[in-house]
Sequence to fold (727 residues):
Amino acid sequence: MNHENGGFDCPGCAWPDDRNGLHLDICENGIKHVTWEMTRKRVDRSFFAEHTVTELAGWTDFALEDQGRLTEPLSYDSETDRYVPISWSDAFTLVGTALRGLDSPHEASFYTSGRLSNEATFLYQLWVREFGTNNLPDCSNMCHEASGRALTAALGTGKGTCDITDWDVADLLIVMGVNAASNAPRMLTSLAEAHRRGAQIVHVNPMVEAASRRTIVPHEFLAMGTFRTTETATMTVQPRIGGDLALLRGVAKAVLERAETDPSAIDEQFIERYTHGFDAYRETVRAQEWSELVHQAGVPEREIRDLAERYLTAHRTIVAWCLGLTQQEHGCDTVREIVNLLLLRGNLGREGAGVSPVRGHSNVQGNRTCGIDHRPDEELLARLDEVCGIQSPREHGLDTVGTIQAMLEGRVKVFVALGGNFALAAPDTATTIAALRNTDLTVQVSTKLNRSHLAHGKRALILPCLGRTERDVQRCGEQGVTVEDSMSMVHLSYGTRRPPSPELRSECAILAGMARATLPDSATPWERYVEDYDRIRDTMAKVLPGFEDFNRRVRMPLGFRIRQPARERVFLTGSGRAEFGAAPLPDVVLPPGRLMLSTMRSHDQWNTTIYSDNDRYRGVRNLRTLLFMNPEDMAERGLAKFDLVDITSFARDGSTRSVFGYRAVPYDLPRGNVSGYMPELNVLCALGDFSVASGQPLMKHQIVEVVPARGGDARAGELPLGTAFAE
Ligand SMILES: Nc1nc2c(c(=O)[nH]1)N[C@H]1C(S)=C(S)[C@@H](COP(=O)(O)OP(=O)(O)OC[C@H]3O[C@@H](n4cnc5c(=O)[nH]c(N)nc54)[C@H](O)[C@@H]3O)O[C@H]1N2
Ligand SMILES: Nc1nc2c(c(=O)[nH]1)N[C@H]1C(S)=C(S)[C@@H](COP(=O)(O)OP(=O)(O)OC[C@H]3O[C@@H](n4cnc5c(=O)[nH]c(N)nc54)[C@H](O)[C@@H]3O)O[C@H]1N2
Ligand SMILES: [Mo]
Fold:
């Protein structure tokens, strides 16, 4: 795994590989992730003959995935309420017939989960656009959409500007809204090294997470064996949930105040030469009262000034962030504020400085680069049309929330998912399941059985595919695929394991099969593409900027980096400059009695896949139906540790949603803030509550009320998720 030249890329997180020749580049969660795929268990036709779908819907999500790897294509038989085997060619015909039977291509929607390879991604979007729609929702719509939008507006490209080598020389790292020890464990190596060099490391998080003080770094085998911890922080700041924008603006205010007496506090030359909108931004910051900034951030002024002092003395600053900043109404504005702050001191486009979003899925960034975008730009479509000889549709398509709404209303009748677990990952679980059930056909390309297979359309297919760790042999021999990490490095990945069943096909082969069945007269050489993925890459090299000479460059050790113009201070914005943004401060302080809920992952889960009910670093065992609360908020409600509570969320449209019988767990969180686990708490996130600017569901921005449980240890606590939904 993660070898310089050969082997497969860890399908865990998107953190880049170490460039210093570290060959054993692994972490505990990476191992969990890979072994999950490598299980010896199989879920075969005899299993499906024994269990109806209605019965399986009563199983826990853990039990469903725990059955093992899928082994052959399956089709839903409504007579017997069972999945039964179907041949690949009949499955493809079913997909093609359903899609060709639609009144318009926009009646279908095509979801992507972020581990799909670049090659499969390219074939996917080519098929969908040749078919005639941009309905390409993806997990990014729930993840880093806000980052992409904000960075594009500010810097002209939606990606980070840093390399891992920049992390090696930065003297201030501000790490915001990420639980690094669990979700990007390989970042800990960089943090520990930075700490040793004397760099400042500031963690900004309402919860004090494992890595925000000291932690066991996964690469340090001796330390791991002896449980010795390593310092990974020099300061922790605990804003209230949603308070980051106010905090960042406070830091900017302190910097601008200093600049009045000490011009070197800001980089005037850089601002003059490369940026636009500085005066308006300075005015906005000046007009903002300290008291309001402190109130909204939930951080005392002296702490904000302390952070500003560190920023003022640092020569090279990187700001990194993940979901804690994006899944909110003002997610885009917060990311813009990060850019504002960096621009003030010219921390962009030079070594050791810049923006560094921490991506989620191992290839979610590559998916966007290779064309998964419901709002594609004209440039991409024009080149696609020219090189591939198709006529791409120009109208924008549906994102994740838009797709759910359209399925509910019957406007989308066919739903295809390349990986993922849409039913559980999306907001408003009951509504999403109802939406999927309202379709004529659902097609899930998957490795394991999950909830999304049980929330099916009138007709349904499960198409089992190879995992990234498995050998992919096509007509011209063994094939590798490519992925792009969080820092724009593209590299090859070759599976090495024997596939769990001879019936499995690669994602590229499945896509080509569905495409040919949908577009029998297509001039696209679908079959030739699958024989040799170099052919896909040759086409990609012509269509995608930065992929020139793709086949040669990707075979270099460690692959290649896609050029990121903003890194070279080339800003592809309307003004040709980096744009300051001066968004108004959102009000994130709730009236008394209401609490702000943020949903997140435990240490022992991978999005919707739960490995165990433990959350080691937060001191939790055998419990997922919990709510982390500030002890004073608990006392105010007469709650003792582990008391049962009911949680009700208040949507903007006035509707409410509740879960019952969760356990209150005291935790070091600001007053008025609570947090608990996705995907269980997705039932509380109303479909209509998404950010206007990014379309992202407000998964870390839920207004709730918490009361002692009325019905005792109740429904949500004990019954499997599926049962709760069926009520
Ligand atoms: N092992 C493992 N690795 C993963 C994943 C996994 O599930 N398991 N998922 C992958 C994916 S797809 C993604 S997108 C990433 C997700 O990585 P993270 O962003 O770390 O994911 P979450 O668990 O949602 O944690 C969000 C963090 O943000 C904090 N937070 C919540 N609200 C706020 C806020 O208002 N401000 C600030 N500053 N912080 C806040 C929470 O306390 C928590 O520490 O991880 C990826 N890697
Ligand atoms: N409330 C709340 N909801 C959230 C979030 C949150 O923080 N809070 N986070 C959001 C985020 S950041 C994301 S990225 C989404 C995640 O949303 P998804 O990407 O849709 O969900 P995953 O749980 O990652 O998908 C797991 C499934 O992928 C399939 N799979 C695994 N490996 C492969 C493979 O190699 N190929 C194929 N074809 N399938 C495979 C398996 O069948 C497995 O069951 O969830 C979002 N939902
Ligand atoms: Mo994600």
